[in-house]
Structure formats: C-alpha cells, structure tokens
Amino acid sequence: MGDLHGFLTQATTALRSAGLTDDEGHWAGGTDKLWFLGDLTDRGPDGIGVIDLVRRLQTEAEEAGGQVGCVLGNHDMLLYGSKYVPESPVTELRSIIQVWALNGGQENDLSALDDDRATWLAGLPALALVEDHLLLHADTLAYLEFGGTIDEINATMGDIMREHDESTFGTHARLLFNRFDFLDRNGGAENARKLLGQLGGTRLVHGHSTIPETFRVNPSTVDGPIIYADGLAMAADTGIALGAPCVAIKVT
Ligand SMILES: [Mn+2]
User: Fold this and answer.
1) How far is the CA of 3 from the centre of ligand 1 (A)?
2) Centre of ligand 1 from the C-alpha of residue 162, in Å
3) pTM for the full model?
4) Using CA atoms in the order 79, 81, 85, 88, what is the torsion angle rounded to 10 degrees?
C-alpha cells in the first residue's frame, strides 16, 4: 500500500476489500505479506491511528505466519524529527518542524507521538527486498548515499533516527524528498537498473511521488499502480490526499 497519510478510514476499508482484514478489522491475510510504503502520517486526520493500525496488524500477521512491514517515509522522518530535533535545519531557511508544518503536519499526530510509537518509527527499514520486489518510499537514487547494500542503508538510517543529531537530521531527511529519478525524462530506466543492480530485486515499488502528479492523471481515475521505466518501476502512491482512492495493490 502506498502513502496512507493519516487517512485511517480509507486504509481500513481498502484492507477489508482486499481480504487482508476481517469485518472486525483483524488480520485475515494468513501467510500473506503486506507492506506499507511509508508516509503513514501528516495531511490526513489520524496519522497516529494509522501507525497503531500497522503495528497491530504486524503482531497479528506474525502470529498467523504472515508478515506486515513498512518502509520509512520522509513524512515519518519529519514527524519524528519534529518531536526530537525540531530546530534541525532542512534548508538554510527552514527547520524540520517548519517543513513538517508546511507539508501537512498535524498537531494531533505530534502531540500523540509518544516514545513507544517513535521508537517503532525509528526501527523501520528504509528499504526491503520482498519476493524479488525492492520496496522503497521515494523514487530516488539518494538511498545509495547511505550505503552500498540494503543492510548498510538500513543501518545508517537507523543510526540517524536514533542519534537525534540536531545539526544533521534535517539534511538527511531532505535526501528522501528527492524524486522522479526513474521517469524517462531523467534517464529513468537507467537509474532504476542502477538501483536494482546494486541492491537486488527485479522491480522496485515506491510511494512518495503520487500517480496523479507524476503521470498527470485525474485522481478520481486512479484505480491501481502504474508500471514504468521499462517495467522496472511501479508507482504505488495513488494520491489519497488528492482525493484518489486507497488501494491495497497485489504485486505477485
Ligand atoms: Mn507521501
């Protein structure tokens, strides 16, 4: 599932429609694997509710022999940084809490982000290789600036999240704002091949750059992912905050 951005009701409905949860909202996916592509919070009404939903399903899926995971999004970093290092500079002019507020940050989410939830966010991987799909939040090569393998990149990102270094946190988060590296006009297929060649997988699946904005389509017409870059990339963020439907995408 692409970016949920606090739209808890839509997420809950989409999960039930996909048969991944039952009528009471509990995990019904058995041994299936369900991954979220980051940006659980901001913009929508209940980011904390989305975090809590993902965490609960993670426990329930594990008990059933399935798997629920989530990669770290830039908005998850913005919210987290706003709690621990609010003055950390993202640009010369703006601190992380300013960037968070200007990009849909919700006071309710920040005030309810306790240490338990924040610690969970800090433990999210930046990248995951699942069934030959390379899952990542942003469609950017910038991940390679954190390391040369998935494990290295995840370890570096975990350190950044846990260290709470006010002087560097914001600029690190900013790297995940980069996007469109896999679109044709930017040498897309070549970039996708580079990332997959280095990190593994046959197709990358990303959120972050919404389908309506990236491919210039009406949000109301989006009903699934778009595969592009010679079939090497899948855009999975339908653009819920733009009014598009929330969809649990089946990838294999
Ligand atoms: Mn997003």
Assistant:
1) 5
2) 22
3) 0.97
4) -110
